[in-house]
Design goal:
heterodimer, A: 387 residues, alpha/beta, Rossmann fold, 17% strand, B: 531 residues, mainly alpha, ABC transporter involved in vitamin B12 uptake, BtuC, two-stranded antiparallel sheet, 22 helices, nucleotide-binding (chain A), Branched-chain amino acid transport ATP-binding protein livG (TC 3.A.1.4.1) (chain A), ABC_transporter-like_ATP-bd (chain A)
């Protein structure tokens, strides 16, 4: 794990002025945030906020229209992710990802799934196939090592008993864990998880939290995750970034974000006339509990983020990016700002990136450290909010 | 009785009633289908006029046969199959399976007796029974032999299943020897044995093995990497012409040109791979199909080099590693060196072992590659390309290696083909060849070497066997040529196999690594790939 001393490399991922446009549609507009090394950073927001689009930009499935994505590796090297080809981002910048609609190699066994993840390492060991074809011993040892690593992650994911079963035969929760284990087999420094808890029951969700905390504590891998399950977000994340309509509306510790009226408004989707009421109720236990139990139907997780997020398609699985249609005044957070313009002058909706992000990260840091004390998954109940 | 209608009567008809009804339906459908196909036929009369020949009797036979078949199936077949699933109350056991009822010791003994008697009378059959009945007797003898062999295989089925690959390779290695021995015993001399073995070794053995090799090569592209390639025959053509041109023009030996042809085909595979990498599924299939046609058209039209449609003749034979040749005029002709009788069978037997070796090389490389990162990446690419990219796999080079490796084996097979025929022309590299190779891969079960080998044997061997069905002439008259119907039977067989085993003969997938035990992955989990 990295130490807490602030340095340039303290941020493993720096997203600066990221914009992604699909034709005239702005899926992400001028987004800037940082993910710090050794921390779990959560990216939340209502459906269609552009979270998966951010992920696709980071992992090279989309080339961003504007902006800079800098990844600082532990050895001091930096990579500009927007310039790397798709497959080199996991290989060289060591960024691994999972998908919202699980993408396992369903006809291959669990073990094979994890061996495919070690492709680049094994290719080198096998002399780009040629030496391995003639049975040189270097490949054999590398192959045995890769099986050991796969076994290690299967044990972590509690799947070692099913190592020789096809991945498509696993129950849903186990497939989620396997996908994380597969991503970890690439030896990543940043692990991007797209809704890892979607469709999990409370028990599986707890096991997932334990797995993620274990990854964070024992491998030093930083985690960036998209999540709708607030129990997961609030329990394990050190830092939360909230998006709405492709723009950042809040950024800080889980506690700070939870009490941010702009976030509440974005999630609860208040009517214009109710904005004041909500503002009055901010901090009220009821509102916070509603926030935790789940967003409402209009902005909450719709069918696309349901347990089985539709058929696996050929395109990168994100339904959110294209659906964004930002009409004037659609942003609930913007409405809150407009109504309470005098009362809350800070952080306008179109956040000027340099100032707020710098200010936020400096203020957020101590706050983020405080609740990050290791939580035992056993005592966590699903309420999550009443901490 | 006429007034009261009980509801049960409508719902539960007896099998006989249902069978009668369905037989009538089937007959009506058959009549509708075949009235123009079979009932009428256009023909030329003696003054070259087009006339309509009416064949109502044949139509009636077909319709009645269809009705009878449907009747028997519904009245007896379906209840029988249903009973197969019902446990006997007294014993608690399922009824005997169909196979154990079919293969019984008394039947086996009867079959052996029939074979023995008819073999003993072989010479005098025509005299005893007349030519017509003798034909049937020979057919009966063939059936009895097949039944006896099948019984033996059924008896040892667990052993065969467990050691299928080893047994298969042994059988293939011994095949020419057994053929020569059997025919030598039958014909009474070694020379007759060699002479008679020509057909069996060349038409069956070599022909089938060429397709086995081609299908195993295509299997890398289609079965493992999931890239649908309809122009595979192009690489076969590249290999064949590479050997034909370089062999005739520069007199280079087969043993130099074999790897050269493979390398050249692989080069063309990469060349094709580059533009089509972005394409998937149907689009990829169309472009590869076009590529196959382009190669063929170039071969036809580039007369200065390829001699156009006339093809290239006089392609040198393969030598026995440079030590002995198979040309009678050469001083080191094999029969002269070994001091044995001259026969053309030696070359065929040598070629048989050569293609067998090439096949085994293909299988060995494929098995080896599957356990290496590149082979796993191919299969992962078939399963999910996007996930591959998220794991840092360069999908471009992975696809190119699949194309190149598949093409290389196509090139090997091509140069062998040129050496065996001694003549190549664009005629041999039409789209139908690609389609047959692809059909073998699909029929065998994509990705499975054993399944594909069996499928090649069934498809290529099957069509060859249909040439042998001369006894049908006795049934349908001397004008009947069974060869003309072999493609029809072949198509029907494919439809039946695909209905019965939609994933091919071997639908399951063998995992490439395991922690505790190797368990085959059911075909329902594997994907076919999107191109």
């Amino acid at each position: 794990m990295s130490d807490a001393s602030p340095s340039v490399n303290d941020a493993i991922l720096q997203v600066e002025h990221l914009s992604m446009k699909f034709g005239g549609l702005v899926a992400i507009g001028d987004l800037s945030f940082q993910a710090r090394r050794g921390e779990i950073t959560a990216l939340i927001g209502p459906n269609g906020a552009g979270k998966t689009t951010v992920f696709n930009c980071i992992t090279g499935f989309y080339k961003p229209s504007e902006g800079m994505l800098t990844l600082n590796r532990r050895d001091g090297s930096s990579y500009l992710l927007e310039r790397l080809p798709n497959h080199e981002i996991p290989a060289r910048a060591k960024v691994a990802r999972t998908f919202q609609n699980i993408r396992l190699f369903s006809g291959m066994t669990l073990l094979e799934n994890l061996l495919v993840a070690q492709h680049n390492k094994l290719m080198k060991a096998s002399g780009y196939t040629i030496l391995g074809l003639f049975g040189f011993s270097g490949y054999r040892t590398a192959s045995a090592e890769s099986i050991d690593l796969a076994r290690h992650w299967l044990e972590k994911a509690d799947l070692v008993d099913r190592a020789d079963d096809p991945a498509g035969d696993l129950p849903y929760g186990a497939q989620r864990r396997l996908e994380i284990a597969r991503a970890m087999c690439t030896g990543p420094e940043l692990l991007c998880l797209d809704e890892p808890a979607a469709g999990l029951n409370p028990k599986e969700s707890m096991a997932l939290n334990a797995l993620l905390m274990d990854i964070k504590d024992n491998t030093g891998t930083s985690i960036l995750l998209i999540e709708h399950d607030m129990a997961v977000v609030m329990q394990i994340s050190d830092h939360v970034v909230v998006l709405e309509y492709g723009r950042k509306i809040s950024d800080g510790s889980p506690h700070a974000v939870r009490t941010d009226p702009r976030v509440i408004a974005a999630y609860l989707g208040v009517e214009d006339e109710d904005v004041e009421t909500v503002l009055i109720e901010v901090g009220d236990e009821d509102v916070i509990e509603q926030l935790d139990t789940g967003p409402d139907a209009t902005h909450g997780p719709g069918s696309s983020s349901s347990y089985f997020a539709g058929p696996v398609t050929d395109t990168v699985g994100h339904s959110e990016g294209e659906r964004v249609t930002v009409s004037k005044g659609a942003s609930k957070a913007g409405q809150v700002d407009a109504r309470s313009g005098a009362a809350r002058p800070a952080s306008p909706a179109e956040a000027k990136p340099e100032k707020p992000s710098a200010a936020k990260s400096s203020t957020a840091k101590p706050a983020a450290k405080a609740p990050a004390k290791p939580k035992t998954p056993g005592d966590s109940n699903r309420g999550g909010g009443n901490e | 009785m006429a007034v009261t209608t009980s509801p049960e009567r409508d719902i539960v008809a007896t099998p006989m009633q249902r069978a009668t009804r369905e037989a009538l339906y089937a007959g009506a459908i058959a009549l509708g289908l075949f009235v123009l196909f079979i009932g009428l036929r256009t023909d030329q009369n003696i003054s070259n006029e087009l006339i309509l020949v009416q064949r109502w009797w044949l139509l009636a036979v077909v319709v009645v046969l269809t009705m009878a078949g449907r009747f028997l199936y519904v009245a007896y077949g379906q209840p029988f199959l249903a009973n197969q699933k019902i446990v006997d109350v007294a014993t608690g056991l399922l009824p005997e399976s169909m196979a154990t009822r079919f293969f019984r010791l008394p039947y086996f003994i009867a079959a052996i007796v029939i074979v023995a008697v008819l073999a003993f009378l072989a010479g005098s059959l025509d005299g005893l029974l007349g030519p017509g009945l003798a034909g049937y007797a020979r057919f009966l003898r063939a059936l009895a032999i097949i039944y006896a062999l099948a019984s033996v295989m059924f008896y040892f089925r667990t052993f065969i299943h467990a050691h299928f690959s080893a047994l298969g390779i042994t059988a293939l290695a011994l095949y020419p020897i057994i053929v020569v021995l059997v025919l030598a015993l039958y014909g009474g001399s070694v020379a007759a044995g060699f002479q008679g073995s020509l057909k069996w070794v060349d038409n069956y053995g070599i022909q089938i093995l060429i397709y086995v090799m081609l299908a195993w090569g295509l299997n890398i592209v289609v079965g493992l990497a999931g890239l649908l390639d309809l122009g595979y025959v192009a690489f076969y053509a590249v290999g064949a012409y590479a050997y034909a041109l370089l062999g005739t023009q520069y007199g280079l030996s087969f043993w130099i040109l074999l790897p050269a042809a493979g390398a050249m085909a692989a080069f063309w595979g990469v060349l094709l791979g580059f533009p089509v990498l972005r394409l998937r599924g149907d689009y990829l299939a169309i472009v590869t199909l076009a590529f196959g046609e382009i190669i063929r058209l170039v071969l036809i039209n580039w007369r200065e080099v390829t001699n156009g449609s006339a093809g290239i003749t006089g392609i040198p034979k393969v030598t026995f590693f440079g030590l002995m040749t198979f040309n009678v005029s050469d001083p080191n002709y094999i029969a002269k060196v070994l001091d044995i009788a001259t026969s053309s069978a030696y070359y065929k037997i040598f070629l048989y072992y050569l293609i067998l070796g090439l096949c085994l090389l293909t299988a060995f490389v494929t098995i080896r590659l599957r356990r290496m990162p590149v082979g796993r990446a191919w299969e992962a690419l078939r399963e999910d390309e996007i996930a591959c990219r998220s794991l840092g796999i360069n999908t471009t080079t992975t696809k190119l290696t699949a194309f190149a490796t598949g093409a290389m084996f196509g090139g090997f097979a091509g140069s062998f083909f040129a050496a065996r025929q001694g003549f190549v022309s664009p005629e041999s590299f039409i789209f139908l060849e690609s389609a047959i190779i692809l059909a073998i891969v699909v029929l065998g079960g994509m990705g499975s070497l054993v399944g594909i080998a069996v499928a090649a044997m069934v498809m290529i061997g099957g069509t060859e066997v249909l040439r042998e069905l001369d006894f049908l002439k006795q049934v349908f008259g001397p004008d009947f040529t069974p060869e003309l119907y072999r493609m029809l039977l072949f198509g029907m067989a494919m439809v039946i196999v695909m209905l019965w085993k939609p994933r091919g003969f071997v639908g399951s997938r063998e995992p490439t690594a395991f922690l505790k035990e190797r368990r085959a992955v059911s075909g329902s989990f594997t994907k076919e790939g999107h191109g």
